[in-house]
Amino acid sequence: MESLTMRAFEARNAHFDALVNTPGLRWLGQNTNHAPSHPAVREAMERCIRDEGFHVYAPPAGFEALRAGIVADFGLDGQAALVSDGAVASLYHVCHTLLAPGDEFVTTDPTWNWPMAFARSVGATVRQIPIYGPEHGYRLDPARLEAAMGPRTKVVYLVDPNNPLGTACTAEEIAAIVEIVRKAGAYLIHDCTYRHFAHEHHLAAKLDPERTLTIYSFSKWLGLAGLRVGAVIAHPDMAERLAAAPPNNLGSSILAQRAAMAGLAIKDEWFPGVLAEQRANQALIKAACDRIPGLVMPVYPSNGNFVVLETGGLGISPEALVAAYQERRIMIRQGSYHTPNFGDRFVKVSVSVPRDWVEEFVDLMPAMIERARGMNTDVKLF
User: Fold this and answer.
1) Are residues 309 and 252 in the same domain?
2) CATH number at residue 14
3) How many domains are there within the chain?
4) Which residues pair with 191 in a beta bridge?
5) Which stretch, 16-20, 244-248, 375-379, has highest mean pLDDT?
6) Could you say which of 34, 42, 129, 278 is the most buried, measured as most Cβ atoms within 10 Å of its Cβ?
């Protein structure tokens, strides 16, 4: 008999399939990068297809040139990169390698949810430290992390910059967090998926290369979300441990890896334009918020390619505002996607998108707020 879990999964999948196939949908809800790809990236993929280079398996750890390029991009000399089917596959791999039943996995609230599911799937318990709200500065205080650590804490998971809040740790905070994790004999998973968008960012692996595992993604800065290519960067001894039982020992997509290598080669030329546009889009939304009493952007500027908007002062629910925009084929995200505890306070809007999408979003804002006031939110949201 089919399980309730499977039925729920298939229903969610079918709804998302419908979204992907919706013509003209404005993707302002997934933190995906919709900037036009550099011609060199497109050519790398087209050449792979023309030459039919996809008939063979890729090297299990990824092409050597790509592995070296990832390490160099973060400046983590002496570390090793293992290429994966997107950053989420690296997180799955690390959680299943490091955690066992009875271990504890500590992270923030909000955080990215899937690593918590991976931890629970191997029998570990999850502890979250609330960071939402002005009383916490929307960030993790190292003293609160230290207080939350216990004798069973095996892994600390830090999304930095935080998704969905857009805050980034200072150098002092990273140094304190690294020392706390080291003293506990735990491991730090430093998820740097949004590092490239940060105004300032500090790598924990530079302070403790042996017990820090750094997560790298091509989905966001290079816009390869649908191709699924990412990596984990770790000390060579840890990389060897991870390489013993990877989730995909036949190598990640050759097409995706070719695109990623081409992207690293043109990054300095192409990405500054993407960064400038998304920051300009943030400013456009901030200006619109400032014109609407009750609508608040609590973190500005954001260190991610997204912003959070608090709806409590408007007297509407995040779900209602999401549903209103959904009627206009604009996808934004309700806070409950990220956190059941604070999800009733905010929506998240992605900004690494064409400017005209953001202009449409802000132009519709007054009307969508009014539409949301009387809306029945019993609709499918993703």
Assistant:
1) no
2) 3.90.1150.10
3) 2
4) 159, 215
5) 244-248
6) 278
Strand pairing category for 187-191 and 153-159: parallel
Identify whether residues 181 and 302 lie together within a single domain: no
Q: Which domain holds residue 222?
A: 39-266
Please indicate, yes or no, whether residues 353 and 225 belong to a single structural domain of this protein.
no
> Which amino acid type is present at position 225?
A
Whole-model pTM: value is: 0.95
Decide if pLDDT at 62 tops 60: yes
Alpha carbons 62 and 215: distance in angstroms, whole number: 15
Q: Residue 110, preceding bond cis, omega within 30 degrees?
A: yes
Token code pair at residue 224? 């390869």
Lowest pLDDT segment from 22-26, 109-113, 331-335, 351-355: 22-26
Identify the domain boundary among 232, 266, 300: 266
109 and 215 housed in the same domain: yes
Average pLDDT, the chain: 95
pLDDT category at 67 given cuts 50, 70, 90 is very high
Q: Which of 150, 75, 76 is CA-nearest to residue 106?
A: 150
Determine, yes or no, domain membership for 92: yes
Q: Which DSSP string do the residues of 175-194 spell out, in sequence order?
A: HHHHHHHHHHT-EEEEE-TT
Whether 223 and 134 map to the same domain: the answer is: yes
**For residue 26, with 0-12 CB atoms within 10 Å meaning exposed, 13-18 middle and 19 or more buried, which class applies?**
buried
Per residue in 228-255, pLDDT (tens digit) is 999 999 999 999 999 999 999 999 999 9
Q: What is the pLDDT of residues 332-363, one digit of tens each?
A: 999 999 999 999 999 999 999 999 999 999 99
Q: Which of 242, 266, 290 is the last residue of a domain?
A: 266
User: Does the N-terminal peptide bond of residue 301 adopt cis geometry, omega within 30 degrees of 0?
Assistant: yes
